[in-house]
Design brief:
This protein is mainly alpha-helical. The protein has 4 helices and 2 strands; from the N terminus they run αββααα. The chain is about 40% helix and about 5% strand.
Length: about 90
């Protein structure tokens, strides 16, 4: 049995697409993983809307992106929360 390490679902979910975006080196000046790897951060909302969103989604609005983030249950992570705490696990 041969198993591929590059699994792609038929219809990509938002978390799958978000992981693709965060894994793309060209996106790292716009949206990036935090150093501890438990959460991510949008660095440039305008570029995310104008560059990233049209490439991965059928829109170019930051508000649509945040609606998807919230709809999938991602939570805003406080700066004081440490990696491994409940707040960090829910992070974005």
């Amino acid at each position: 049995l041969l198993v591929s390490h590059s699994y792609t679902p038929k219809k990509k979910t938002f978390p799958f697409i978000l992981h693709e975006i965060l894994s793309d080196p060209e996106s790292q000046n716009i949206i990036t993983w935090m150093p501890h790897g438990c959460s991510w951060r949008v660095l440039d909302k305008e570029k995310l809307a104008k560059v990233i969103c049209p490439k991965y989604f059928s829109h170019s609005k930051f508000e649509h992106f945040t609606r998807s983030v919230n709809g999938w249950g991602f939570k805003v992570r406080t700066h004081r929360a440490k990696c491994g705490t409940n707040a960090a696990r829910e992070g974005h």
